[in-house]
Amino acid sequence: MHPMLYRFVASGPTPERAFAAYATEDASRPHDPMYRRADLTKVKRVVVVPDRAPLRAVEAGYFGDSYAAFDGADGGPLDRDDADWLADRLIEDHDQRIASGAAAALRLNAPTAEPSWLFFGWTVQAD
């Protein structure tokens, strides 16, 4: 069993239901030996990440002028670029929420009928 990073976007009324629907669809795909895939059935739980501290560090100037400062509220929806950036920081920092086998969820401000979430974390490789 090899640890494997995953990241995907799914929509649903709650983050748990959005993750479960995506995981069910993903598990129904046929096995492809040329395409490695994370086993989402091994994820223990979904954790919504409300903390925006890494984005606020950008605002304080710690990362230079190459990134637009975040001005949203903690726990509020993010655009896809901010969500991807924050996910990368949490992965690089070995955030305990995802290190414990949970799927981290960041709400996106996408114009969809149901809320959209960026999910990411570590699990084992699917067979």
Distinctive features:
about 30% helix, about 130 residues, four-stranded mixed sheet, alpha+beta, single chain, globular
Compact description:
The chain is of the alpha+beta class. The chain has helices spanning 15-27, 53-59, 80-92, 96-99, and strands at 3-11, 46-48, 103-108, 116-124. The protein has a 4-stranded mixed β-sheet with strand order 1-4-3-2, with helices on both faces.
Overall pLDDT confidence: 82
Can you count the beta strands?
4
Which percent range describes the beta-strand content?
A: 15-25%
Order of helices and strands: EHEHHHEE
Largest sheet: 4 strands, mixed
| General shape | globular
The class by helix and strand makeup works out as: alpha+beta
Instruction: Give the N-to-C terminal Cα separation.
Output: 9 Å
Major sheet: order of its strands? 1-4-3-2
Contiguous runs where pLDDT drops below 50 for at least 5 residues: none
Helix content: 25-40%
Write up this protein.
This protein has helices spanning 15-27, 53-59, 80-92, 96-99; strands spanning 3-11, 46-48, 103-108, 116-124. The chain is of the alpha+beta class. The mean pLDDT is 82. A four-stranded mixed beta sheet has the order 1-4-3-2, sandwiched between helices. The N and C termini lie close together (9 Å).
